[in-house]
Amino acid sequence: MNVIHVSAECYPVAKVGGLADVVGALPKYQKELGVDAKVVMPFYSNKFTSEHKFESVYKDVLSMGGQVYDYEIFKLKRNFLGFEVLFIDIPVLLYRDYVYSYDDTDRFLAFQIAFMDWMLTFSERPSVIHCHDHHTGLIPFMAQESYKYKKLNKIPIVLTIHNAQYQGWFSHDKVGHIPSFDFSKVGLLDWNGQINPLAAGIKCAWKVTTVSPSYMEELQRSANGLESLLSHEHQKCMGILNGIDTEVWNPETDEFIVKNYVSRIVQSGKKDNKRWLCREFGLNISKPLFAFIGRLVGEKGADLLPEVIDAVLPENNCNFLILGSGHQETEDRLNALKEKYDGSYNAFIGYDEKLSHIIYAGADFLLMPSRVEPCGLNQMYSLRYGTIPIVRSIGGLKDTVIDIDDGGFGFCHDRVSLPEITDVIARAVRFYNEQPMVYKKNRKQLMRIDHSWDMSARQYLDLYNSLNPE
């Protein structure tokens, strides 16, 4: 079986969020099951592309909106990723030092057209095209409806929704940018008076998946305007829980962390990493360390973090450490708290891959008070490193974390509110201080929970096989 994943992100090439982690891991695990899995993504001007050598495998021109653009397909001269990645370079549009910005409509539409044009030259068609999020959502429509791609309309296409909040909307004024099709089918592109690539992908893909079963259920009630569409298309939809790359996220071999460890020596291993964090950020190692890693945006509940810290620290003997960036006001408020809670709180505004690994290894608790969390990977990383997750019960967090009072191993709350978040943190502090033996036993158990991609990769393979019954 030959599968092509089409995505805007892929770790370690270009990462903005969890999409990159998924696309950077799933193909690797699929190859272990005998699937010839590749990734096709844009060619960005970033650290990865500047540090590696590439060779050209194809070049041509594409037409879009009356403009003609040169494009070229590259691959790595030395492939070390565990699967093949092919890069579409459209110098005028894609070769930027950012993944997403103001001009994404033209950038990602051209990316999809270039991919489809290139596909026409293949002597052997893929068994499945697997599209990821709205940046590739027009591929199912073009394969089904655009005249020039009729030869491709028998290739099964799967669309995975990683986050339905972002749908790629643009005006019908640009409908002419899409390769010619029977205009009576324009309704397949439309949702609420705009061209909506994610909606078009849901309508035209053979199968639609989301990144956790609970998120698929939630989308029929809350999907940023697509609720009725997803309810209507529910028969071709399914939720498959993401996994994590246990080779990258492995405290026994992780080259980023201060000291490697396994579950047998989790206490000493985590203490060395915590000691480094406390020394680096001026915190007290004797206190429980609560960490937040992620985008500082409303979806993640990050706007409440300054209030949470202000409410918790005067009443509880603990530390807070924040790693992330996003909304400027939230960043400013978090920075302003450093002096007020010197010795108990600090923040690194930005993102640092190495630091994130050390925080997973050194923190005692990980906060995820998300308003929206389709799957969530951070809670799985924290479990892998023996760090207890504190989560809101939604989406993939609901599928992966069971509250300790219900016989589980984490702490859960139902609503994103200051009282509920502060209460659950206080409960975790009491657990840390009053039940040290249970706490230590719990950390060992966390590390034995299997959230690898093995099961998820098999579920995707079963899905692909159902679309290729021969």
UniProtKB/TrEMBL annotation:
**Catalytic reactions on record:** [(1->4)-alpha-D-glucosyl](n) + ADP-alpha-D-glucose = [(1->4)-alpha-D-glucosyl](n+1) + ADP + H(+)
User: Which pathway does it take part in?
Assistant: Glycan biosynthesis; glycogen biosynthesis
Q: Which organism is it from?
A: Zhouia spongiae
Q: Which UniProt keywords apply?
A: Glycogen biosynthesis, Glycosyltransferase, Transferase
Q: What is this protein called?
A: Glycogen synthase
Which EC class heads this enzyme's classification? transferase
Domain of life of the organism encoding this protein: Bacteria
Q: Which residues bind ADP-alpha-D-glucose?
A: 15
Q: Return the EC number.
A: 2.4.1.21
**Starch synthase catalytic domain mapped to chain residues:** 2-231
Q: Which residues form the Glycosyl transferase family domain?
A: 283-407
| Protein function | Synthesizes alpha-1,4-glucan chains using ADP-glucose.
Q: Which family does it belong to?
A: Belongs to the glycosyltransferase 1 family. Bacterial/plant glycogen synthase subfamily.
| InterPro entries the record matches | Glyco_trans_1, GS/SS, Starch_synth_cat_dom
